[in-house]
Amino acid sequence: MRFIGTMASMFGLGAVAMPSLVRAGVEAVESGTTGTVADTFLKDAPEFSPEESANIIIRMQRELKQAMRKPIEQRRWVMVIDLRKCTGCGACTISCIAENHLPAGVVYRPVMEEEIGSYPNVSMRSIPRPCMQCETAPCVPVCPVNATWIRKDGIVDMDYDQCIGCRYCMTACPYHARTFDFGYAYTDGTPARQPYEDIPSFEYNKRWSQRRGQSPAGNVRKCHFCVHKLDAGMLPSCVTSCIGYATYFGDASDPDNLVAELISRTNKIRLKEEMGTRPRVYYLI
Amino acid sequence: MNNQQSKQNGLSRRDFLRSSALVGGCAALSVSCQRAQDLADKAESGGLSPDQFYQLADANNIIYTTCMNCNTGCGIKAKIVDGVLIKVDGNPYSPWTMTPHIDYHHNPAKAGIAKLDGAICPKGQAGIQILYDPYRIRKVLKRTGKRGAGGWKSIPFDQAIQEIVDGGRLFADVPGEESREVEGLESICSLRDPQLMSQMRADAARIASGEMTVEEFKNKHSENLQHLIDSEHPDLGPRNNQLVFNWGRMKAGRSQFVERFISNAFGTVNRIGHTTVCQGSLYFACRAMSEQYVNGQWSGGRKFYWQADLKNADFVIFAGSNAFEGGYGPPLRTPKITNGLTERRFKFAVVDPRMGKLGGMAWKWVPAKPGSEAALALAMIRWIIENQRYDQRYLEAANKAASDAVGEPNWSNAPWLVKMADDGAPGDFLRVVDLPESIRPEGDTDRFLVSRNGRLIAVDPNDAKHAVTGDLLVDTQVEGIAVRSSMQLLYESACENSLQGWADLCGIRERDIIELAREFTAHGKKAGADIHRGVSQHTNGYLNVAAWMSLNLLIGNFGWKGGMIESATYNASGTGSGQPYPVNNMHPGRLSPFGISIIRDRFEYEKSTLFNGYPSKRPWYPLADSIFQEVIPSAGDAYPYSIKALMLYMGAPNYSLPAGNELNAILADTQKIPLFIANDITIGATSAYADYIFPDGTYFERWEFHGSHGSVAQKVQPVRTPVVSPLVDSCTVFGQEMSMSLESMMMAIAERMGLSGFGPDGFGAGKELTHPDHYYLKMVANIAADGSPVPDANEAEESVFLRSRRHISEATFDLERWKASVDPKWWKKVVYVLNRGGRFQAYADTYRGEQLTNAYARQINLYCEKSARFRNSMTGVRYDGIARHYPVLDSLGRRLEDDEKEFPLQLSTYRQSMQTKTRTNSAYWLLAVVPDNAILMDRITAEANGYQSGDEVVIKSASNPDGIWDLGELGKRRVVGKIKVVEGMRPGVVTFSLGFGQWGNGASDMQVDGDVIRRDERRARGINANAVMTVDPFLKNTSLSDPIGASVVFYDTRVRLEAV
Amino acid sequence: MLATASAPRLNRIHDYRISLTIAICALLIGAYGVFKVLVLKEHGALTSYVPWGLWVGAYVFLVWLEVGMIISYFILRRYLGVDGLRLLAPVAMLAAISALLGALFVIAMDLGHPFRFWKAYLQPNFGSLMSWMIWLHTLYLVILIAELFAYFKGRDYVDRWKIYLNFLTYISIPFGILLIAVIGGLFGVVAARPFWNASVLPLMFFIASLVAGVGLLTLLHLLFSPTKGTPMYEETAKHMARIFMGAIIIGVVASLANGLVIAYPNVPAHAEGLKLVLFGPYWWTIWIVHLGLGVVVPLLLLTFFRDKLIAIGIAAAFYLIGFTMVPVNIIIPGLAYPMPTMEGVMEAFSHPKLSFEYTPALMEWLVVIFAVGISLLVFTVGYRFIVEPYLREHH
Ligand SMILES: Nc1nc2c(c(=O)[nH]1)N[C@H]1C(S)=C(S)[C@@H](COP(=O)(O)OP(=O)(O)OC[C@H]3O[C@@H](n4cnc5c(=O)[nH]c(N)nc54)[C@H](O)[C@@H]3O)O[C@H]1N2
Ligand SMILES: Nc1nc2c(c(=O)[nH]1)N[C@H]1C(S)=C(S)[C@@H](COP(=O)(O)OP(=O)(O)OC[C@H]3O[C@@H](n4cnc5c(=O)[nH]c(N)nc54)[C@H](O)[C@@H]3O)O[C@H]1N2
Ligand code: SF4
Ligand code: SF4
Ligand code: SF4
Ligand code: SF4
Ligand code: SF4
Ligand SMILES: [Mo]
Fold first, then answer.
1. How far apart are the C-alpha atoms of C11 and C391, rounded to whole Å?
2. Is the pTM of this model over 0.90?
3. Which fold is adopted by the domain C22-389?
4. CB-based pocket (< 6 A), ligand 1
């Protein structure tokens, strides 16, 4: 959406975003974490045999730790979803809800399904849709208050405390990847609201309440590649919970990373490539 | 939890629990929010690094346990923050959730392990919502109105125990029951003398074998006849049998505990599971195929079945086996398939009228007609035999030595000769004793015979020294007796139709059959047929299974890498050598119950004193057990006897059984079931009809040992252990505080009745069994000790063990009590096992060369002599010993003549990955993905009938012409659902998924302690069409069943849809 | 050229008590909606897939109307020589100010966190057209207030207030155009929404705003012109009726052109929104309310009863009522269907708030009523205590 910038300069005022205080704070945290994390998990890294390491989860976890040792601007996170392996089980959808304490009506990773062909020649395809973490994310420039931005490692970040809830970003995302937190709980209206809906979530390395009226309620929410888990040296939840082993994650800037191999193949596509959004989520077909 | 606290938590009075009988609220919460705030403050001030801040990465907040949201039993990591379970992930030590899984010896205290998560399915993820279900009960409920009318009051635990034990006018306040005397358990448990019971048991067996008459029995036991149900029929056993314990889902540990209480302390034979509702005929056909001939008898058949080694197979046919969405189970099978696909190793075909997600990714989807499973397998068998694509070397081996000689892990009786009996059907095997003495070979006359190049050779199957091989296709006469080899019998059965004839029967192309058979035989041992409910849950289920397993046998893939697996488990019951605690043998005064069970399983009609020609009043099942569909209808018909009390645990037969609606009238009838006690976590679909409901802990709050499944190649034993403080109330039994559960209910009954095997001397003098922990920790020690014992837990591990349980109340986790439950030398090993959620063999040890380490290494029966000796009690016809195709038949062996014009469609059913039966309707996360099920219909039928997706229709059948669920007091509901038009269905077949259309578990309004507990509309959506499934026209209150394997039939109903 | 005409007699046709009562009623009724938003944190019938609805529509409507009115006033006076409007200036400015305040209120209520509205001023992202919108809206409001102030202060040509007023009038025009263009651009730049993503959208917005402005001006003239009772009053009204008719026709042609641009390439995703507008569940809003009542009826009235003041008034009122349907018929249809290749999201996860169906909830209407109440209150009070005394004093 450089178009907006162009338009803004057309109006003669330039399109320089006013860097907000919040933004600066987040950057400080981002760079701060790099050191601590790498140290702790190196200490505690178990030795895996070659056989165990054949497990792609173990491999990707190792690669993730390596990436976390690099400065943030040198990481290029990429998610790869192999549609030949996705069975549409929905484990990732639910895992993401549990991990991020998503309230009713909010979803980060729905799985879309389609039947292809006609009887008796039929097949089925399931397409999980996290946030594409677009390199040229249309949702970012539209935000009137800089509550969402692209991190140096490519993740399209958000600050719930900054977001005013105008929902402009939702209209701008071509993937319906942003949903609004209306503050609903799954067990409201039942005999008793349940405790799992009250424990704060860990998103963005903060503790977020689940009460209506408090952020993130009233905010727009979306998948964030589980930044809080990355910082703890862990893979995103939808990756580890994928029972089809169809979801890969890693640092594409490192040629040794599994994802770097995968996205170099001819069977990779990105959704709505024509929009020019340049997603960091690739699909293998 | 008082008002004050709830205000502090910011909960409004409105959403605070109305009735204290339901679980709700969150006592720990105000604390937890504060702690969370502190943490956040600390993090912001830079005092915490992100991975300290992220509490789910901390080993001290993780307990490894085992899921049971479906029966797959995946290893899980329960992640707990401030006492609240908030995330469930896969256990990387478990082969279920990581492929390959990590080595058992990694230390779970290490952050690197704490941060490594395996994959589990969406239901497993949503288990949190089974635990924290606002409709869970926390106190004992007693009904206040008619059964099933929805009125309840909570009563103290001790009072409930006293009432059910002592009996009396328990429902004097219920209109119509003012003067009804309920017989209590104390009185039902009539015969308590172990010696006397053993004697009577032995004599009852003599009556069955004809060694003793009823008169003789009566004379011998004249003083004790009052203990019998019916002195004219001593073989029915003592009155104790009139307590029936029935369950839907129970695994090892609990199962032994229940055996201890129900059978060994209370002394009833009626301890009945639910196998036949799942895949009974699959189990019982494989049991028949695994019977071993030892000491002149067929015995040792294992209740199990083989599944394909998907990790290494090159080709698999999934027949009626829903590997991606149902089955046992998605997390362990999916990655093997999907990795295999992209590695270009694996190819698979799906035989299923519904394409589904599995068929949608298959090399070939074969939508054969429901019920034609054996036909398809036999067609392939015919082609394979005629094209000689079977493994001749393997099949010719007729005993152990021969199989060893050709490097096979097991052998079959394919070459053995069978005598053709007078009725024209194959009978017993030809034995040496059948030969005239002149030509008898030396030695044992009980040996079998094979023919090799026209010569007869005697076979001792278990002989490891003398290899015997035999010709495969033999059809000859031996001394005037017509004999055929087992393989020949199979071939003849396969020749009942031409390939084209079979193809027509299956409604597919001949080409499909040949392609399947060619591919199946093109990969050596690395191919398999993986079958499940779609094959077994038909009236011809047992023989369908036999046909498909015979197909596997033709390529001899059992025990091979990439072939078929038999599961292996570490023994929890302690009966193995070197194991410290054979728990159920440690039972002073233990009873050995006897008598014919209410479901007449494992007993021959002809040998009972009830024998009165054919048909019997209800079927008998000499080869099967755990016949779920027979329990309540048999009580309804009082055949073979009436019952006095029913205890139901974790099952919902009226919802889950085909024609389950027929049960409601019986359940509501206080004459037929005078006392009905349920153990449940909510007011469930069936427990809604109970007199009393005792609360239980969910699988996150209790013990169990889940065992394994055929698709797991490793030797394993997953452990289920409490991970949070149970949400139910506590009770005091034997002076110990414990949370209410199945165990505490049983122990309290035992305490009040003074039954053996429980209490301060429960395990023997001075060895207490006063808390369930005493029992289960011993079993954990057994697991730790099996084979070569596990190492001791080190200090770091012990610390993690303790700290991760710091939030669990003493009634459940008390270190001193836990430690005291086992000998100190086992304690650290117990910790070692619990810290990993069970015991799992190393991945590296799974295979030995091209074979499985835990390979099936015994005989496999192609021809099942034992089966062929029994008769169908309804028709008097002998069971088949070899695979054969039959059409759909009723209990009297008659073809069902449903009018295809009136009922043009065939009804089927399946599961989808988001739901599991009657208990996931509380999992709101899952309901957000699939809020509702639908009636799947193919486009062609839809177009022909003008249906569109979203149209609401009612389903009607000949058995249920109005399409009505009759729920008794709860009212009548129509079997209505929405159509979804798809391409991936066989035209003419409609199907619906399991888990919707509920009335239990918060799907109906209930009254508890005067408060109306409103139903949650989300929990009541969708359709369950079990009510229209065909009722057996003779039995009238039960669905169709397989006469041999006893499977209940889900897929053989013709229906008509009508727009609403 | 401004002050040459002889001062007409002020005609008190406006009884402020009626409008005060209406305003207070609106505030009282609407308060419940505002309570729901601010206290219960409800967001009406909006969903995650249709995140903007009535409130944004009301906002756009109000801004269009007021900016259009100010600009058309300028054009009519400067270039079309409708001198009879001279004394309407303070009324028009006051109307614009009050409506802009209401608009600001309604858009604040639309936020998930209304009390963070300040962030839009203090931590803006000028890469976002929404920031521009808020800033321009506010600046524009300030300019209008300043203009009104200068108007009251200014005496003659050499008075510095008069010079300020002139200056402010001149800059208010480009600011107004910019504001409308930015609002148009706000939708137009959203490439994800094919129905909005038309390059003509800002222009469309501008035209629409002008037509509506002429309509409102006509109505204001009829109701509040101090010239009432003079021949000039009627003459001006008739003059305006003709201009208004032309404006309506230009507006219709422009909409047609826009529709054609969307429909012509026959890209399903683009046409989907148009289909929703024309044949969707709310087809009647465009066909009956907007085109029928709002266009055809006024055109007929203006053709056949062009000399009857009452007919002109009714035509203008009808046009404005029908015109309320225009913004919502641009905003909602742009959102109310899944984006291309994303159709599966509808089935993938369900919640009442994950729906592409949207019908404004009662509470949303209440909030709009409250906003109208605010506008009316400001207008009434302003008129009663500032404008009217001023006019009385000076003319
Ligand atoms: N998601 C989920 N998973 C579960 C469970 C659950 O409740 N939910 N429960 C567990 C339990 S208890 C069990 S027993 C297993 C059952 O596991 P499966 O037997 O694998 O599962 P189902 O889906 O019941 O049925 C198997 C398949 O048979 C097909 N089928 C139906 N009729 C016919 C027929 O006539 N012929 C053929 N060839 N196929 C037919 C169905 O379309 C379905 O695909 O699943 C376990 N796993
Ligand atoms: N249409 C259709 N029907 C089917 C099938 C199908 O594929 N289609 N599948 C069949 C199969 S394979 C099976 S296994 C059956 C299953 O059917 P059932 O064996 O009847 O099993 P559930 O419905 O799981 O039983 C649920 C009851 O157990 C309670 N419960 C849950 N957890 C606990 C616990 O921890 N403790 C106690 N005490 N109670 C608990 C629940 O509240 C509920 O009342 O359904 C069968 N029915
Ligand atoms: S997918 Fe949508 S929300 Fe995510 S970065 Fe791209 S535009 Fe933004
Ligand atoms: S909703 Fe929040 S993040 Fe999205 S554009 Fe508005 S302020 Fe920015
Ligand atoms: S990366 Fe994290 S936030 Fe994004 S979909 Fe996966 S689990 Fe959800
Ligand atoms: S968990 Fe994996 S296989 Fe399942 S739907 Fe998600 S991406 Fe597909
Ligand atoms: S398959 Fe899913 S529900 Fe079943 S045991 Fe495994 S994780 Fe639990
Ligand atoms: Mo089952």
1. 10
2. yes
3. Formate dehydrogenase/DMSO reductase fold (1.20.1630)
4. B 70-72, 123, 278-279, 319-322, 325-329, 351-354, 356, 370-371, 373, 532-535, 908, 910-911, 913, 915-917, 991, 994, 1051
